[in-house]
Amino acid sequence: MNTVAASDATPEIHIRPCSEHTGAEISGIDLSKPISPSTLETITNALHQWGVVLFRLQTMTEAQHIAFSRHFGELEVHVVSQYSLPEYREILVLSNILKDGKHIGLADAGQRWHSDAGYRREPDRASVLYAREIPAPHANGETAGDTMFASARAAYDALDDSMKQRLEGLKVVYSYIRAYEAKMNEGSSSRKPLTDNQRAEVPDVVQPLIRTHPYTGKKIIYANPAHTYGITGMPESESRALLNALYAHITQPAFVYRHQWKVGDVLMWDNCVVQHNAVGDYKLPQRRLMHTTRIKGAAPF
Ligand code: OGA
Ligand code: MN
Question: In CATH, what number does 2-296 get?
Answer without folding.
Answer: 3.60.130.10
